[in-house]
Fold each of these.
Amino acid sequence: MMRLSASDLACRRGGREVFAGVGFSVTAGEALVISGRNGSGKSSLLRMVVGLLRVAAGRIALQGGDPQLTVGEQAHYLGHQDALKPSLSVGENLRFWTGFLAGAAPDIAAPLAAVGLDSLTDLPAAYLSAGQRRRLSIARLIAVKRPIWLLDEPASTLDAAGQARLGELMRSHLGGGGLILAAAHGAIGLDGASALRLGSEP
Amino acid sequence: MTPLAAILMRDIRIAMRVGGGALIGVLFFLVVVTLTPFALGPDLALLKRIGPAILWLAALLASLLALDRLFAADHEDGSLDLILTGRAQLELVVAVKGLAHWLTTGLPLIIAAPLIGLLLNLDARAEAALVLTFLVGTPALTFIGLIGAALAVTLRRGGLLLAVLVLPLTVPVLIFGVAAANAAVLGPLPFGTPFTILCALTLASLVVGPFAAAAALRQEME
């Protein structure tokens, strides 16, 4: 049974301590929603878990995963940026990420249909709106199966239909035994998720 | 498609699309070499004498030009985050990006060089030697440049730092490349002597470049 936990985490950015003494524990099938005001370190916490930011203090542990791989190598990280190349088409972008992350060429039509971008497969990514770019990044999460999803404000540029669809995808991921850590300002459609609040109350 | 093949195809595809940068290096090379005879005047003997040196200098600067965006573009759109935390070995990913850069920048230079050499009054023997030195030496320029490109991302400075870091490291390649090209025409050194040293420099850079660049990129993870 997969379990991602952290204890006593501290974060320093630019010489300033962003947070300290943060801990959480998430098991398979569960979600954790991280909230806090701007600058409280939600993105930094996610980046620490995925391995892009050095852990100043504390530890992060994963039980039940592949012991040969780091947490980041078993996770999908959906950051603020969408990791898309504007000169490549929607299909080419997704095909690249499935090829790079999965080492194979799985079907991209189904993930694109799941996020509603199948009609735009050949459109250069430069012409996508912010919400469409976000949906293409979400397609990457569906195309390649990873147990851990680390989402940084996933619904931020999505319209209501997009948010509903994201909620469905997250619920099915949890139903399949995955776990989700999401940083969000508001509700993102995960009822019953545990909450972690960073920073002091305003 | 393996992860490395995916990176290779993506980088080549991006470079070959409009504004991708595949031809920027070659165009810069053409401009520099075309202007040189105008600057130097119609002294054919002089052009023949310094022709290889001018071509090598232009190739070096052209390679440098296209290196600037190598990692910076991935860093800016968030792709680098996913590459750093991916399962593919970072040193190999960096080496493959270097290969893609050479295929889209170095290879066109090698093809353009003999045609442009005519502008500098080089004869067939000088051009053959020059193309051989380009073939062996341009990979070294790319792979040494990887180090500067990676550091430029980590240190968040632009192209000027890249030039300052990379140029001193590429000077030996320049010296032996020109020496080999000249040796074929003028002597007294046999062509092989500086050429084998150039080969050695390239082989060393093929190994050191990716390792140093990967180490620099890992510093990105603060």
Note: Residues 160-175 of chain A form the longest helix (16 residues).
Amino acid sequence: MFFAAIHIPDFIVQAVVRGEIALRGRAVAIVDGTPPLWSVVAVNRKAARIGIGLGMAKSQAAQFTPVKIRHRSPAQEKAAHEALLDLGWSISPRVEDAAPDTVVADLAGLGALFGSEEKVAHDLAEHGSILGLRARVAVATNIEVAILAARGLPGVMLIAPGEEAKRLSALPVHTLRPSPEILETLARWGVETCGALAALPVIHLSARLGQEGVRLHTLARGAAVRSLVPAKSSIYFHEEMELDDAVEELESLSFLLGRLLDQLCERLTARSLSARAIRLEFDLERSFEKDLQCSAHPGRQKLISRKFEKTFTLPVPVRDSKLLLKLVRLRLQSDPPPAAIIKMALSAEPDRPRTTQRGLFLPASPEPEKLELTMARLVNLVGNTNVGSPQLMDTHRPDAIRMERFRLAQEAAGSHRKKPFGAAAKNISASSKFYSSLSPSSVAKPANGFRFFRPGVPARVELRGGFPERVSFQGLRGEVVAASGPWCTSGDWWQDPWDQAEWDVEVHFSAASQKTKWDSSPGAWCGLYLIYYDARQQGWFLRGTYD
Amino acid sequence: MRSHLATLRSQVELSLAGRMASPFGYRDRKSVETVLTGIPEIDALAGGFPRGALTEIYGPPCSGRTTVLLSALASRTAQAEVCALIDARDSFDPRSAEAAGVELQQLLWVRCRGLEQSLRAADLLIQRGGFGFVALDLSDIAPETVRQVPLNAWFRFRRAVEDTATVLLLLEQESNAKTCASLVLQMKRKPANWSVTAASTANGGGSGISPHALECLPHTCLLDGSNLEAEMRHLRIQSINFPQACNGPVSIAAGRSGHDGDKAQSFASQSIWSLSARHAFGSPGSQT
């Protein structure tokens, strides 16, 4: 049974570099502390090589020109740790969370899926780099040996059974992570490597260093045996970024959002998942002027919010970061944050990826992902309430409709259409037969179309004996040649009532009538209109025209 | 000069080899697949609406353009196709559409505020592809405004739907797409049909009922539908599945609108109150 230990060297630095690709390959120092007493808490190898040491003041570190100094970010460290766990879970369901920078995966039974242990180790290192983490991977039959080898040996390492002590012997003794006191003692003794520690007699070591000494001795010999402690599988996908300078422009913001989305999607891909919804959280910069304006109006106190939150629900699970970025950008264009952003966080609600394939003989329909993008663009163009699928409401109120999110039928139902291809083909066949015989009388009439005027067009109606006799609207005046009504409706007396009487009228306009913007036809003509008297507004209006 | 042109042409063709079959070839297809409009008379006249082409329907208000649109939408949604309607003046009526048989869940309705928004929305929908039926309804836009749309806009639409299965329908008051449209239908007004009761007929009612004659007889008259006339002005294609069956203008009788369902019920029972929500309406007199 083999175990693969995955270790991220210079974890604190890598957690920051993961979110800022431009820092890769450069000397980076991470500072932390209470301002202005910032001191260096982590450096990468290049920074150490040019002389930057831990504990150095920020101002001192800044003297080294090629170094990039960044502040420590617990949020980014947490996200990097989650990504490391995702890397482990990408190959094995049994993963131990050994340390913030180290995880161990059980490779038992994975040979048939992923190949040899060596191949798995190389794959893990490669996937780690995709996730933005430069990982060291060591595979051994002993968990502790794998962890120590990953911490101390560069690259990918496979330790065969029986070779543990030999491979560990060259590792520096601080790889065992003893307490500072014991490390100092060992240094005084001249014990610098695990091999030197393993060579010491365990009885004497126990007498001088206690049980901790025995434990270190066992570790150094590669003889420590324990069981894997599997971590609880998490589906928490969250990425954060704190900004040194507040960002207000959407262009700059989208650049940073793209980076976070890339990280999020890589993690989802590692877990073979997709995002069903994306949650966006911005911490906004305090603006003195705006706060002052708001505080001047007591009623607007609630408007002072330092958080800007948005949730984008996707019709189908998506893990394409470019597509997600376009969607987020379009939504932010239509509803931008009210102030500059100082911190951003993205979290994904995971879901299984879309795997169904549409039927070969079903009518073509837009790709759900592309459709979502098109919808977002349309929303940006005409507004959120003006795009969608109309749904009738259960009321007699005229024009009582609501717009619902447009969803492809197969997405909404999760199955195929009500009418399969067979039904369609049958209809076509029937129609073809119909054309050969051409018997229109046997076919139902098409329903008369109606065009709505939103809002209703004010009209002047002259009545005679209670019936419309003349109608004039928008500079057009005509004689009513036929009328049907009144068709009275009212309702909702308890809230927003309406009370109307409709008339269907056929109006004859003479050639001399002034032309409206709706019509340019010459000569006399007749129009079919639906007019109504609104008892609440005490006036006549045109509801629409039959067309 | 000619040899230079021939050389240039061959060079362009060579550089586009593999990407474009014949860059200088005339791409107008003669035979295309068509779909049913839902109105047999129009299908017999034009052979249906062509796929991958622009169809233009124009005519004055009340001439039946919306009737044709709703029938086509009903026909397409019944075939499980995804449809889109770009409504330039927000005048689409979902209630009458549902009564006409349109499955509203399969219809993407884009409510625009003018011509420019409509054209941009149409561009977005057509370029993305995948829709079986896209209708651009400019019926309520003033003809002089639509006239200002450059011809290349229609040409771009036509090219965008070429080689796709999309039916692109354009509704206007005047024909503007010209040769970019593969099929152009003109709709004409005809008098409406009115149903009258025996009582009103005895009083001299009928189509063109005198309001005075109906003074004591409310609901003795009902809009029963309208008559339409469609004429094919231009046809550049030939249907491969529904051949054209007639040439001349055709008359179509349209039934009641979805708005008239309750009215028809009331009318049939000669009762003013078919629904509890309805109530007696006092004569408001002459109002503005």
Note: The two ends of chain A are 78 Å apart (CA to CA).
